[in-house]
C-alpha cells in the first residue's frame, strides 16, 4: 500500500485486475440524509452528496475513513478529495478484506501501514483486529464508511461496516455511511435466511443470500435489529444516493465500474457471483486462478460438454422453473436460467498475484462451463447457482459424490444444511429454489422500514 489515493493508482489497480465478489426519522439517533429530487444521468453517490450537500456533518472535524480503492467520486478518491480540503482533517484510514488497495487475496490477513503521500495511518480491519480499537480512534471525531458492496451475504464489507458501529458507540462519535448502489439492483432477494448456527465472517447477518439492499439501507437494518450488541445509542447518518431506484442495475447508473475486490473484475461477474460463489463450498473450482473467476466453474471429474448441454437445455425449457419476481409476482420468466448461456470449457487454475495466489485445483485440468450473461435483468443468480450445482453433482462419478460438499463450507454459504441434502437426494432444483419462498417473504417484510429508495 504505497503512495496517495490518486486516480492513476486506482486505474492501475483496475487494469491489473483485467490483465494480470425520505421518510421521517423515527429515531433521534438515526438520520437519513437525502433528497426526493431525482437527477438525470449518472447517479450521485453518497460521497459526492457529502461533499456537496452535507459537508456541515464533517466540517472542522477529524475523520477516520473505512474505505478501499472503490470509493471514488468521478475520477477522484474520497480520501484525495477530503485531504485537499482545509476545513476537515483525515487522521486515520481503515482497510477491510482485500486491503485499502483491493489487491489482497480473499481471506488473506491485511497489515497496518502508513500512506506515504499523506502520512495518514492505515489500520487493518482484516487481521487480528476486525473493528477499530479505542486507540485507533483517539484522534477521530467522526467515523465514515465508504466502500462499494455487491449485495450478497458472502461479501465481508457489510460485516466490517456493522462491527465498526460498536467502535463508534464506544468512542462516542457519529458514524456516517456514504451510500452506493447495489450493483444487482434492489429487487433481487434469493436464498434462505442464514440460520444462527452458520454465523460466520461470510454470513454475519441473518439475511438471504441476496438481499436487494444498499449498504446504507443495510446499516439502518443492522442498527435497528440490534445485530451487534450495544449499538442502540449509535449516532448513525446515512448519506443517500440521488437518482437511484430499485429497478436499476449497475449499467443504468452511469457510474464507472471499479472492481470492489480482485475477483469481481466486471459487472458481468457481479451478476452471477451470488450463485457461483456456492462452489467455494465444494472441491470444484469457482474459477479463481483464471481471469474469469465465478464466470467459469469446473471439476476434474465431469464432462464439460454434458454439463453445458444439460444447463442449456434447462435454460431453454419452460419446465425448468416458471421464474419469479419478488416485487412483481405476476411477472414470469420462462426459466430460472434465463439470461444465461453455458459454453463448455477446460481450464487450468494458476497462481495470479493480485487475484488468487493459491487457487483451488492449481495446475489441474478442470472441466466445466464458461457462463455468458446475455440478459442482466433476467438473471436470478442464486437460483442459477442451484441448477449449476445440481448438474455438476449429478454428472459426477459415484466415487466423487460423497465428498462434493464441504461439511461446513457449503452450509455457511447456503445458510443451512438442507440445500446440499436436497441436491444429494435428487430433489428437483426448482423445488429447492421454491423452498426459500417463505424466507424471502419474511425478509421482504422485515427490510421494508429501512428502504430509502423507490
From TrEMBL:
Molecular-function annotations in GO: peptidoglycan beta-N-acetylmuramidase activity
Domain Peptidoglycan beta-N-acetylmuramidase NamZ C-terminal: 272-453
One Pfam match: NamZ_C
Domain Peptidoglycan beta-N-acetylmuramidase NamZ N-terminal: 64-267
InterPro entries listed in its UniProt record: NamZ, NamZ_C, NamZ_N
Segments for region (Disordered): 309-332
PANTHER family on file: HYPOTHETICAL 460 KDA PROTEIN IN FEUA-SIGW INTERGENIC REGION [PRECURSOR], PEPTIDOGLYCAN BETA-N-ACETYLMURAMIDASE NAMZ
UniProt name for this protein: DUF1343 domain-containing protein
Native species: Natronogracilivirga saccharolytica
Amino acid at each position: 500500500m504505497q503512495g496517495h489515493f490518486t486516480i492513476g493508482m486506482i486505474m492501475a489497480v483496475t487494469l491489473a485486475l483485467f490483465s494480470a465478489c425520505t421518510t421521517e426519522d423515527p429515531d433521534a439517533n438515526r438520520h437519513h440524509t437525502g433528497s426526493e429530487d431525482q437527477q438525470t444521468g449518472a447517479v450521485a453517490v453518497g460521497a459526492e452528496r457529502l461533499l456537496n450537500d452535507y459537508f456541515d456533518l464533517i466540517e472542522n472535524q477529524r475523520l477516520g475513513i473505512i474505505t478501499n480503492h472503490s470509493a471514488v467520486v468521478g475520477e477522484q478518491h474520497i480520501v484525495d478529495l477530503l485531504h485537499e480540503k482545509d476545513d476537515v482533517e483525515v487522521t486515520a484510514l481503515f482497510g477491510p478484506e482485500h486491503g485499502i488497495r483491493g489487491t489482497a487475496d480473499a481471506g488473506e490477513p491485511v497489515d497496518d501501514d502508513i500512506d506515504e503521500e499523506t502520512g495518514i495511518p492505515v489500520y487493518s480491519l482484516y487481521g487480528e483486529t476486525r473493528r477499530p480499537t479505542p486507540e485507533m480512534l483517539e484522534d477521530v471525531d467522526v467515523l465514515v464508511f465508504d466502500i462499494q458492496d455487491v449485495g450478497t451475504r458472502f461479501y465481508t464489507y457489510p460485516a466490517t461496516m456493522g462491527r465498526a458501529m460498536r467502535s463508534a458507540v464506544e468512542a462516542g462519535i457519529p458514524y456516517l455511511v456514504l451510500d452506493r448502489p447495489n450493483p444487482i439492483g434492489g429487487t433481487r432477494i434469493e436464498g434462505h435466511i442464514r440460520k444462527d448456527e452458520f454465523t460466520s465472517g461470510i454470513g454475519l447477518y441473518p439475511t438471504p443470500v441476496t438481499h436487494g439492499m444498499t449498504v446504507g439501507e443495510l446499516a439502518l437494518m443492522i442498527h435497528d435489529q440490534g445485530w451487534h450488541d450495544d449499538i442502540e445509542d449509535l449516532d448513525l447518518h446515512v448519506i443517500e444516493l440521488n437518482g437511484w431506484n430499485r429497478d436499476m442495475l449497475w449499467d443504468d447508473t452511469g457510474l464507472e465500474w471499479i472492481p470492489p475486490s480482485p475477483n469481481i473484475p466486471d459487472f458481468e461477474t457481479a451478476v452471477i457471483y451470488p450463485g457461483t460463489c456456492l462452489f467455494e463450498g465444494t472441491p470444484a473450482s469457482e474459477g479463481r486462478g483464471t481471469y474469469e473467476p465465478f464466470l467459469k466453474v469446473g471439476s476434474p471429474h465431469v464432462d464439460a460438454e454434458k454439463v453445458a448441454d444439460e444447463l442449456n437445455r434447462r435454460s431453454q425449457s419452460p419446465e425448468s422453473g416458471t421464474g419469479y419476481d419478488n416485487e412483481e409476482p405476476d411477472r414470469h420468466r420462462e426459466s430460472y436460467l434465463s439470461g444465461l448461456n453455458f459454453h463448455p470449457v477446460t481450464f487450468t487454475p494458476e497462481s495470479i498475484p493480485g487475484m488468487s495466489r493459491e487457487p483451488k485445483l492449481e495446475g489441474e485440468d478442470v472441466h466445466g462451463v464458461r457462463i455468458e450473461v446475455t440478459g442482466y435483468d433476467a438473471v436470478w443468480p442464486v437460483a442459477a447457482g442451484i441448477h449449476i450445482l445440481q448438474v455438476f453433482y449429478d454428472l459426477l462419478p459415484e466415487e466423487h459424490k460423497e465428498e462434493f460438499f464441504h461439511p461446513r463450507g457449503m452450509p455457511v454459504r447456503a445458510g443451512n444444511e438442507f440445500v446440499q441434502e436436497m441436491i444429494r437426494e435428487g430433489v428437483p432444483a426448482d423445488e429447492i429454489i421454491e423452498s426459500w419462498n417463505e424466507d424471502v417473504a419474511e425478509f421482504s417484510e422485515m427490510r421494508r422500514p429501512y428502504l430509502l429508495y423507490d
